[in-house]
Amino acid sequence: MNKNKSAKEILADLVGFPVLGGQSNLPILEYIKKYLDGYAVEYQLVPNEEGTSANLHCRIGPAVDGGVVLSGHTDVVPVEGQDWHADPFQLTEKEGKLYGRGSCDMKGFLACCLASVSEIVEADLKKPIYFAFSFDEEIGCLQGSILANAIKDFYEEKPKYAIIGEPSLMQPIVGQKGIVYYGTTVYGSAGHSSGIRKEVSAIHESARLIMWLEKKMDTLIEHGVTDQRFVPDHTSIHIGILEGGIAVNVVADRCTFKWDVRNIPKVNIEDVLTDFEAHCRERELVLQKRFPNAKIKTTEIHPLVPPLDTPDHLSVVDLIKRLSGNNTLGTVAYAAEAGQFSNAGFETVICGPGSIEQAHRANEYISIEELDKGVDFMRKLVRELE
Ligand SMILES: [Zn+2]
Q1: Cα-to-centroid distance, 50 and ligand 1 (Å)
Q2: Topology of 7-176+307-385 in CATH?
Q3: Is the pLDDT of residue 1 over 60?
């Protein structure tokens, strides 16, 4: 049996595992497994193909329908190039704040879950609580769907709710934009710059395509395809990187630009790509009249993460209002596993301690007050299910 540790003590332990997205999470998982073993909680692992990382899920309470899944990720973002005032992988307390990479996003929530295990185990739950701890969330929510579906498949009973404990200052979040990144490369013809009228400049063509994408965003807005719950209230399309050309006087035969789409729930993110591809095929025909090998290729460089759109009438909304003590529903523009759990059939909301403002920054922290709120949230959840 474990000595009951506080959320703060557990958080200090968890922050000590510098597991970045894309790296093996087995060390931190070992800690969590041992901790659960201490309370005789059975868990299941969902490893990747190489066996270098694994998701973990477990059920505490009776095998009946209607349980609540608590979801969090075990990986964090890098600290390189950030001006940290102390070791990011050692939890440091200062003036009511706990500093460390992942303290807020989102080991604080994991610590609240684990600190509550003794209480959950002892409670006479009528409905079960599940933990769903993933990896590689920070490099594109790579495991969210896999873990959500593994839970659905593994248990004979049907868990009903999923609470994603991303930092929201314990505000219930019912909407999240979707996201995808693409890279587009234009293949043109090289030549002297004076011959621009007979060559196919990959840079010139890229510029046209970029303007087409900007127009696509503007057209959606003009047609009223907006959602007032989000800031900004529309699907955004943005080009963040453009690379091409070797000299001012040489027509570029290759140019690549990378862009992201962050869609509001009512826009199908794949429609944007379908329209763009159709336009590219038309442009290729035009370009090939000058240069037969002209081509435009687009590939996905960050997997598509679906949006979350939980309607007010679902019972998870009332549940989360009661648990958080906050009736003001919100939305977020960052990517999380919420849309993936929702797509797998769970009534899903985001709600967790700490502020997203602190996430991914130097000197990331969670206030002790927020961490306490997280623990209190767990307590209310246990009472709710008793
Ligand atoms: Zn996160």
Answers
A1: 24
A2: Aminopeptidase (3.40.630)
A3: no
